[in-house]
């Protein structure tokens, strides 16, 4: 299929590279950022074509702008009548549905969202990670979406467009807030006299081990540590030394972790004693 890209950022560039490798034909790119445009052209060995020239040739049109600009791009394309019958407009946002691109319900085009559930920090990394990445798919051309994701080497999942905010929030918690948790852990290490760099270097293998446990045994069995053991004295010691700013976060996470610990106990045919359960809950509130 012929495809074009509007928004030449990391995701747009990486998807263009992978689509072309899969046999699709790149026919055009448009970006408001000159720097991003030049970088795209370097990666794809591309020369500029006017938007008005290539849009009517595109079977697939990827709008890979920032989330807040997807609607703006769709409105501009609609106002300028830059589309063709049967064309599929695709965005890669996890937070908004494909309907955000539907400016005029009478346009003879289709709308699709393909969201890569991955944290892309750079183009080369994104190109490498796309195969094996899970993609959330929704829209009125989801069969085409399944085909595209499969060609990219990804793993497709259909989404309910009305539930995308919750889906995206889950992704944010797992990825973005993981960075936040590491920052808090580093701060605690620094309070203990360990440098920032040493703290991060020490914590990364621990985190990788936890992720490996999640991959190997899943939830709730991957949980280790004082809550999993019901070690009230260790938890109490943490709280006695906890910095004021981090204390409420530690307690809030602890309450959620108690539920995981209880489920692990039940799966293993065990249970917290009444005294331990009540004391851990009291400490975390």
UniProtKB/TrEMBL annotation:
Residue ranges occupied by any Putative oxidoreductase/dehydrogenase Rossmann-like domain in the UniProt entry: 2-116
Record-given protein name: DUF2520 domain-containing protein
InterPro entries on file: 6-PGluconate_DH-like_C_sf, DUF2520, NAD(P)-bd_dom_sf, OxRdtase/DH_put_Rossmann_dom, TM1727-like_C_sf
Domain DUF2520: residue ranges: 134-256
Gene3D superfamilies in alphabetical order: NAD(P)-binding Rossmann-like Domain, ProC-like, C-terminal domain
Domain of life where this protein originates: Bacteria
Matches recorded under Pfam families: DUF2520 (PF10728), Rossmann-like (PF10727)
């Amino acid at each position: 299929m012929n495809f074009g890209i509007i928004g030449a950022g990391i995701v747009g560039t990486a998807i263009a590279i992978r689509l072309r490798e899969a046999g699709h034909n790149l026919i055009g790119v448009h970006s408001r950022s000159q720097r991003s445009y030049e970088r795209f052209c370097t990666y794809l060995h591309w020369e500029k074509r006017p938007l008005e020239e290539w849009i009517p040739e595109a079977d697939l049109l990827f709008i890979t702008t920032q989330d807040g600009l997807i609607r703006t791009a769709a409105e501009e394309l609609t106002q300028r009548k830059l589309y063709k019958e049967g064309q599929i407009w695709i965005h890669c946002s996890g937070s908004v549905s494909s309907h955000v691109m539907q400016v005029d319900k009478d346009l003879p085009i289709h709308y699709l969202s393909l969201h890569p559930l991955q944290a892309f920090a750079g183009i080369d990394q994104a190109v490498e990670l796309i195969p094996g990445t899970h993609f959330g798919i929704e829209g009125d051309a989801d069969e085409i979406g399944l085909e595209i994701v499969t060609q990219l080497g990804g793993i497709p999942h259909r989404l309910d467009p009305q539930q995308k905010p919750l889906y995206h929030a889950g992704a944010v918690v797992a990825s973005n807030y993981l960075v936040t948790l590491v920052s808090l852990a580093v701060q605690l290490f620094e309070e203990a006299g360990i440098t920032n760099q040493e703290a991060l270097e020490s914590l990364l293998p621990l985190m990788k081990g936890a992720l490996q446990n999640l991959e190997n045994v899943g939830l709730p069995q991957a949980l280790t540590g004082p809550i999993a053991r019901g070690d009230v004295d260790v938890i109490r010691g943490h709280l006695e030394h906890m910095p004021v700013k981090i204390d409420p976060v530690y307690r809030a996470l602890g309450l959620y972790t108690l539920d995981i610990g209880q489920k692990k106990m039940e799966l293993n045919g065990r249970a917290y004693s009444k005294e331990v359960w009540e004391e851990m809950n009291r400490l975390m509130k």
